[in-house]
Every structure is written in structure tokens, then in C-alpha cells.
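Honest question from a wet-lab person: if I give you the sequences of every part of a complex, can you actually get the arrangement of the whole thing, not just the pieces? Trying it with mine:
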Amino acid sequence: MIDYPGFSFEVTARDPKSGARTGRLTTPHGTIETPNYIFCGTKATVKNLSPSQLKEARTDIVLSNTYHLMLQPGADLVEKMGGLHKFMGWSGPLLTDSGGFQVFSLGEGTMANEIKGRSGKGHDNRNLLEITEEGCVFRSYLDGQVIRLTPESAMDIQRKLGADLLMQFDECTPYHVDRDYTARSMEMSLRWGDRCLAHFEKNHGGRQALYGIVQGGVYTDLRRTSAEYTADRPFFGTAIGGCLGGTDEEMADVVRGSAPYIHPGRPVHFLGIGRIRDVFTFVRMGIDTFDCVIPTRLARHGTAFMRGVRGETVNLKNARYRDDASPLDETLGLPASAQFSKAYIHHLLKANENLASQILAQHNVATINRLMREVRGAIPKGRLDALEKEWLGL
Amino acid sequence: MIDYPGFSFEVTARDPKSGARTGRLTTPHGTIETPNYIFCGTKATVKNLSPSQLKEARTDIVLSNTYHLMLQPGADLVEKMGGLHKFMGWSGPLLTDSGGFQVFSLGEGTMANEIKGRSGKGHDNRNLLEITEEGCVFRSYLDGQVIRLTPESAMDIQRKLGADLLMQFDECTPYHVDRDYTARSMEMSLRWGDRCLAHFEKNHGGRQALYGIVQGGVYTDLRRTSAEYTADRPFFGTAIGGCLGGTDEEMADVVRGSAPYIHPGRPVHFLGIGRIRDVFTFVRMGIDTFDCVIPTRLARHGTAFMRGVRGETVNLKNARYRDDASPLDETLGLPASAQFSKAYIHHLLKANENLASQILAQHNVATINRLMREVRGAIPKGRLDALEKEWLGL
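Yes, you can. This is the full assembly:
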């Protein structure tokens, strides 16, 4: 048994019609209500947004990526600067992943879609030099340096970074690998999980909590084995990772098949998934937290999340917005979403002015935070179906 | 005589030791104290900064560029959207230039240094098709469209944009042209000034004021002729434009030679000049307002203006800042300059994260605004020399 002082998770209400639940997740850097959304601050910054802009958008929690930070500026430097909270100026709860996902996805996120089954391309992982029981060896995408990452070093790096919520090191298998490879990989990830727990237990400073990760690809029986094994181990939380299939339906089937075997008293995080429709689908299966780069990535491409719009988003680059004097969303309670016209944002995008990314990133983050607040409000009342229709314009 | 209702300029104090003066410049969008600095919002946005970030940095006034806006999104669109103040969300005083500078500098600012005499390159103005007494014809850098700009159309465009302070249309001659060309060009600019005044008088809506521009290259007698002519015409203010020489000394000589002939009761704007050392040099010659892109341009290259640093700036990309836990400047009163360490900004720059530009742009704007406040405080006390030493680390 590992003690997680300063951490707790309690379920506060349940949807009478589905597996959705609301909860309260407490960390040494504050308590957040769940379901909630963890915004990606890959390189110790949520792209184009300062911590004060994140707070103005009512953000509760962010994450940062171990893989990127270990390469630049390095975990030792972040530790020397007082840890990630202080370094990036974020005083609220913070999560780091284990680095595995990026190592196995070529280090630049380019394989992310492939791992999620969204591409037919092969697993062209040129920077990954070796995967063994010990761990993996890869080449830095920055300078070609050869780097070894093991369950133990992933724990050490995350300890130095100092986030509240940590992830075990796991192998993240892509879509195209067969059942046999997926089974062997999942089993190795379980053993890596045990090594992470053992190393964490020896070294943790009492201010961090560790999540186990459920793997098993698209194979429901493997997911079940992984979920049960993870539930048996003294992790604080559970994450769902790896390949989940090539379609929304397959992804839903995989999660639906794993959910019953996940520890019911622990917070459940869904790694890397987070469109508006995904939030509605997966809170019903008991997901407590989501993360995805899309709120800020879409912003950089001129796209805004919108409540009540079929397809979730509008693209401000579209010529129809050229002379649209209306603001993005006056009902959001965010100054940037109320004070600039769509025509102005359209102009900034045409002129390649970065202020557009800043406005849209803050708008998207605020819109997703509003979504999560409304989802939390709807769950105890059994109103998720009605809310989903309102949000998705159905 | 043209009436400029809602506008006024009064000198409030004079430096006992130089030609420096403090003043109060009133526009329909507010009053600013002078000397002051006008930050460049080229394409209707000060790069990387929202209006609220500008205000937090204590900005009083910004400018936008007619040339860029006439091409994208177009003056008619800006007018339809309620004018530039409303379009860009800036409620304070606003200036637009006439478009001439960019037309004559290739349209992308690449010739700016050449015009200022800072480069030996020839005047490779491929987009400028024709300069005649009527005006000029050039090719849009965006889509190759052939566009005619005349004194009258420059006034019409600026009327539609709706800034408070407008500039006459002038020819901006580069460094290498000879005295003869410079003289003929200056004389044409004076005639263009008269046409601007005539057109302005017929069409203005009573909420804008027009500046004449003193040209004449590096030739003091031509500058004097231009200054006297401009002083004789019913402009609201005077701007100093064009080529001022190849060195700081030459630039100072040219302005020193023109200053006595500039109308003493009108605000004097120095176009496109604005390093910290320039502010000290030229307020002593009676300059009331400056503008320059360098506060935000330097920010994009990792460079911060710093009070008391020899050379004015530090470059945060420098490896010495890798583990520097100190903030940029805790004394500035700007949250961003106090809350992020130099090490963090160094990391953001290495990681190509745009938040670095945002932090540094706001820091640089706030630092220049502090400079101008301190300059205004020093002038009545005859303390400019002492203040200059403090700022430039002398």
C-alpha cells in the first residue's frame, strides 16, 4: 500500500441514466471538480496562453509532457528552478505524462493519429532505437543524442519535474500491430507499472500521486486483464491509454469493454482524447478527466469551439466571416470572446497575426471549461442527453 | 485655416537646459501627456499584444499602417466595422500614417533601414511602378494587384480608417538619392501636402487632425524649406520623416538643423525612430512623440529593453540565462515582468513557444512607457542628463 498524503478522490454524484459521475479530486495544489479537462502545456506552456489568461478562462488543471521537458530544458534544470509549478507560473494542480507516448510516437506527435488509429501509415519510428524489458532507447529529436528511458528513470524525471499527478511508464502500441504484439506489450507495461510503483514508493516526496495506465489496444479481453491488474496495484488513479481503434465506434467499444474492470474508487483519466462529442460519450462510461491538444491546436488554425454548433467548431478563416461584426460568444463570460468581432479575428488570421491564436486559444479553453461545468451540473440531474443536444446542435 | 474641434496641444513645461518640453495632446479619444511613444499596430494589432495587455503595460497611444490596412482587410471594411478603434478594440488615441513610407520602401518594411540610411543596398523597389506629380502606382505585395495612391486617396483611406491623428501623403526618399532628386521630391511632397489639406478640409468629419511631414533628406537647407513651408500651412501637427542619414550623428544633425523652423506650437512627431538613446537625444530637440516597431520586433527575437543596462537591451536567448531564476524586472510594476524567471523565458525561446514573444513584447512596451513617464518627470526639473545616465547605464 502506498500512502498518498494530500491527495483524495471522492465521487459526489452519479448520473441516474449512465455511468457518469461527478467527483472531487484533491491535490497538494488544490481541489478540482470532475469531470474536468486537463489542458496541454506540452513544453511547460499552454501554447499562446499565460497562466493568468488560463485562469481568466477558468482553467482548473493543466499537464506538461515529460518527453519534451526532459530534452529541453531538462528535468534537473526544472528541479533547480523550483519545480514545474514555479517554473511555468502555474499554481494549480498539474499532471505530467511518463514520456512513453511521445517516445513511441516518434517524439514529435506526428504518430499520435496513427496510434489512435486515424491513419493508415505504417509505424515509421526512426527515432526509437530499441524496446526491451529494461526500457527503451531513442534519439532526441532536438540533437540526435541517444537517450534511455526506463520505468525508474521516468519516475525520477517526473519526481524532479514535481507535478501533482504522475503517469506510469508504458509502451504505447500503434494501431497496426497484431494481437500477439499487443498482448506481450500490455503485459510488459504491467511489469513496468510494478517497477514504477516500486521506484516511486522508495523515492517519492509525499507530494505526488501515481496513475497506472490501462493498455491492450482494441482487444477487449486484453483491456480487461490490464484494467484488473492495474486496479490490484496501489496506484492513486487509472488512465486509459494506447490505441483505441480506427473509428469513434471502435474507441467507444474499447472503453465500454474496459470500464467495468477499472478500480471504481479511483479517478479515471482518458489520455489524449477530448473533442466535445468525446466528452459526452466518455463521461457516460465513467471518465473523470480528459486531455487533448485540440483546444489550442485548432486555435492556431483559426478554428473556434462553439456551443450549439453542429460539428462543434467554426473556422474563422472562412470568407463568410470577413464582415461579420458579431463577437465569438458574448455568453461565455470571457472578455476576449465578447470584445473582438469575427471580422477582426478573420482579418488577424489572413494577416498572420498571432493575436488570433491567442484570442482563439483562450476562447477554446474557456468554452471547454464551460462545457465541463455544464456537464458537472447535468450529471446529478440526469440531464446529459439534453445537454449533449444543446452543445452539438442536434 | 482648418478647425480641429476636439483637438488641442499645449506645452506644459520646458527643460531649462535643452529644447525638451512636456505637453498635453488632446484628441477625441483622450488626452496623452508628451513626450510619449506611439506603439506600432501595423496590421491593426500591436504584434502579440491585446488591447488589454497594452493597457496593463500603461500604453497611451498606438498607430496603425494605412498601406497594410488598405490591402488587407481594406479601408471600406474597416469603416463598415465601425472604424479602426472599434475594429481593433483600442479606445484610446490612434494615429495612421499615409501609406507613403511603405509604398516607397517596397511594401514590406524591408527597405526601412535603407531609407534610414542603415544599409548600402540600392533602391530595389520592384513593386513601385510609377511616381508622378499625381501620385504613385504600385503592386500589392499580397496579390500583385496594381494600386494607385494619391494625396486625395490617402486622405480618403485614412478618413475611412478613422484614426485621430492622420499623416499627409509624402514621398519618402531613400539614402542614396542625390541632392537634386531629394529637392524635387521634397517640393512635390509639399504640393502633395497642400492637396492633402484641401481634400481633408472638404471631407473631414471633424474628428480627425492632420500632420504635415518635413522631408529634405540629409540636406539641412532642404529640411529648413520643408519645415517652414509646413509651418505655414494649417496642419495640426508636424512630423519628421524620410532619410535622416547613415549614422546617429548625421541623424541628430539633420533634426537639429530642422527643429528651429518647425511650428513651435504644434506637436512634433518623429516617424519610425525610437531606441532608448534616441528618445533622450531627440526630446532635447523638441520631439513630442516617437514611434518605432522595435519594442515588439526585438521581443520576437528574444530581446528585452532594460533600464540601466549599457546597450539598452539583453538577449534572453543567451546561454547565461539558462538557469537564471531572477525575473526580468520586478520594479516595472508589470506582472509578466515580475512573475516569470529569465530561465523560463530562455526555455520558451529555445522551445519556439510564442508565449516568450508575448511576455517580452509586453515587457518592452511597459519599459518604454516607464521611460517616457520618467522623461516627462525629468524635463521640468532639468534632470534629463542624470536620467539618461541611469537608463543607459553610463
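Two things worth pointing out. Chain B touches chain A at residues 43-45, 47-52, 68, 72-73, 77, 80-82, 87-89, 322-323, 325, 335-336, 339-341, 343-344, 346-348, 350-351, 353-355, 357-359 (CB under 8 Å). Chain B has two domains: 8-292, 303-392.
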